[in-house]
Write a structure and sequence with these properties.
By secondary structure, the chain is of the alpha/beta class. It folds into two domains: 3-54, no CATH class; 72-299, no CATH class. It has eleven helices and five strands, in the order αααααβαββααββααα. The protein has helices at 3-10, 14-28, 40-53, 57-68, 81-95, 118-121, 155-161, 163-169, 200-226, 241-260, 284-299; strands spanning 100-110, 129-136, 142-146, 177-179, 190-191. It has a five-stranded mixed β-sheet, with helices on both faces. Helix 2 (14-28) crosses helix 3 and helix 9 (200-226) crosses helix 11 (284-299). The mean pLDDT is 88.
């Protein structure tokens, strides 16, 4: 960095910063070379930049942009037959639900929007948020995320206007379906639970559906436990809608990376209440027919022997 840039960012010269660092290094440097703690000089620079600008935005912006450019390497919906078969097998192991390519739902991420945009980001609980759609596999890996929609938008609207929703609607994934809650309305490619199951087969279908679909709830729990900035207990994010959307996407990417490296985490944040209303789509009848066929052909046989 040039001397001018250093003064602009930290309000102190290079020499002044090093002198200050040497005065306090015994208190802020890691105590052992094997530690993964942030180096003392880096800590000092971050604090000085906050003092100079009143925000961590500059530091966040550069790193966030760099991470966002590689999100496609870590979040992708499977298109290959072998990977799709693996995902179906993993979902089937949970509760015998066949042909599942993903569990889908939305979760709200609180933030403080610009004053002139408050109304579109106000959700049904009268808070301000982005309504974030995610699809996961049976191992809680996020396969697809849409993070740009305001909290006032319905889950089904987000799905049917997303790239993945359009691909399913166009029949690009004919050998599998998504599992969603009743708020979506049943589709030929999106199965929802029955409102009033009557037969034993219908009850088995519902039990299987609920047990299998809960993977997305667990995914949100792990995601928000790992990255508290996304949970309301961490407060409301103080960035623009676009930057909050990028933060969500990058956190999803880092979540997948943590799973890849087998980094477990305990879910310690409280569950969130669904705040989106039920939606009865125009093709619910056709979707219900698919569910009925599945129940008749697959769940009427009763449980398989162990």
């Amino acid at each position: 960095m040039s001397d001018r840039k250093i003064v602009d960012d930290y309000r102190l010269s290079r020499t002044a910063i090093y002198e200050l660092y040497h005065e306090i290094r015994d208190d802020i440097d890691p105590t052992t070379a094997r530690s993964h703690a942030v180096p003392g000089l880096v800590q000092l620079l971050i604090v000085l930049q906050f003092f100079a600008t009143g925000t961590f935005q500059q530091v966040l912006g550069g790193v966030l942009h760099a991470l966002k450019t590689c999100d496609h390497k870590h979040i992708s919906f499977p298109t290959g037959e072998e990977e799709q078969r693996r995902i179906k097998r993993d979902f089937h192991k949970i509760a015998r639900m066949p042909n599942v390519l993903g569990a889908i739902d939305c979760t709200h991420v609180a933030f403080t929007p610009p004053v002139d945009q408050e109304m579109q980001f106000r959700n049904r609980k009268m808070g301000y948020s982005l309504n974030v759609q995610a699809v996961c596999d049976a191992n809680l890996r996020i396969l697809d995320v849409v993070s740009r929609y305001p909290g006032s938008y319905h889950n089904s609207y987000i799905l049917f206007n997303s790239a993945l929703g359009k691909k399913f609607a166009e029949g690009q994934f004919r050998k599998g379906w998504l599992l969603g809650d009743a708020g979506y309305g049943s589709k030929t490619w999106l199965l929802t639970p029955l409102a009033t199951p009557r037969s034993e087969a219908e009850k088995r279908y519902n039990e299987s559906h609920i047990s299998t679909r809960c993977t997305i709830e667990r995914t949100f729990g792990v995601l928000k436990s790992r990255f508290r900035c996304l949970h309301i207990s961490g407060g409301s994010l103080q960035y623009s809608p676009d930057k909050v959307a990028d933060i969500v996407t990058v956190c999803c990417m880092l979540h997948n990376n943590a799973l890849k490296h087998h980094l477990a985490i305990e879910i310690v944040v409280p569950p969130e209440v669904n705040i989106t209303p039920l939606d009865r789509g125009s093709d619910v009848t056709r979707g219900n027919a698919v569910s009925c066929q599945l129940i008749q052909e697959y769940f009427s046989r009763g449980p398989e022997p162990v």
